[in-house]
Amino acid sequence: MAINHPSFGTIADNRVIVFDTTLRDGEQSPGFSMNLEEKLRMAEALAELGVDVMEAGFPIASQGDFESVQSIAQRFAKGGPVVCGLSRSAPGDILRAVEAVKPAARQRIHTFISTSDLHMRVKLRMTPEAVLEAVTNSVSLARNHVADVEWSAEDGSRTDPDFLCRCVEAAIKAGATTINIPDTVGYAVPEDIARIFSMLRERVPGADGVIFSAHNHDDLGLAVANTIAALHAGARQVEATINGIGERAGNAALEEVAMALRTRQDVIPFSTGIVTQNILRTSRLLATITSFDVQPNKAIVGRNAFAHESGIHQDGVLKDKATYEIMTPESVGWTTNSLVMGKHSGRAAFRDKLSMLGYTLGDNQLNDAFRRFKDLADRKKVVYDEDIVALVDDEVVRI
Ligand code: KIV
Ligand code: ZN
Predict the structure, then answer these.
(1) Is residue 72 a contact partner of residue 39, using CB atoms and an 8 Å limit?
(2) pLDDT per residue over 258-267, tens digit each?
(3) 250 C-alpha to ligand 1 centroid (Å)
(4) Is the pTM of this model over 0.90?
(5) Do residues 187 and 223 make contact, with C-beta atoms less than 8 angstroms apart?
């Protein structure tokens, strides 16, 4: 059923809202904090990437966070992504977030409270009834100020199902337009996530008038798989961060979710507004700003994501890229794939590399150069172009 949303109007049933939280949950990972200017540069890049909602920060957390959210809201005063501020359920938190997002053309308040037994008893020291009351009061207060209100059940995936239904019902009755069920500690497996979202959509009155949202942490490396499971079970908002940064092991990586949807339309038939060609440069900007490199084998944006070293793979890619590439490097912003020369490389890639470097060799010369290249590759991890040039320079004929 198509939903009429205060920020987006009528949303087609297969359209997924991308909620980026790089500037809030992402920034909460140790060493990743950003200053105002850096946050503004990231906000600009995220808007160009096509995110629908940008969680700009947690305004009550510090004066700096408040100012960052407010500046980003000012930047998008005339349009752009929905600018969201996070708040706990206390009235002071909510009002601070309201003030921070006010300049934005489209504003959202995201308010949360823990709902699991463990969190309520140990962290909040509140009874379930008091938590339910806080849900109603916090969402009502936020709704008095903005039309677009998201409510989150912190530690939702470890919450008693009946109590979770009661909380979600209270949030919807109080006016929440998005219901987010975080897997706060990355404990859930895809089957858990599917069960929770299906249950809420079936059992909670009013569930068909709101957007359900998935917010998964990556402690077991399942954040992206869980996010896709949530979509299959009816969620239509995904919360994610660039490069998957976030508390502990991080959040679902935005680029991975976006490309899984684009690449596997046959089994995940949903669309987003993400301009995938901008993915790599957004990832690189974040790495530069935070001074944290992306791991080489990171899906989509890692240095090796489109690099081939083994001879068998290089030979295949030279014949037809589709043999070992499931998406084109260009579709996520790389200019090309790369054939990395090392001890696993084969003769076909070596010949291709020589031709790129401007050399043509007869069969005997090629055999000899290839043997010396293999000797060198056994001693060096990666053989660079200049090594190959030095290797063949004295015995070849330049084109
Ligand atoms: O992981 C979490 O539970 C959160 C909430 C504040 C949404 O980040
Ligand atoms: Zn989180």
Answers:
(1) yes
(2) 999 999 999 9
(3) 11
(4) yes
(5) no
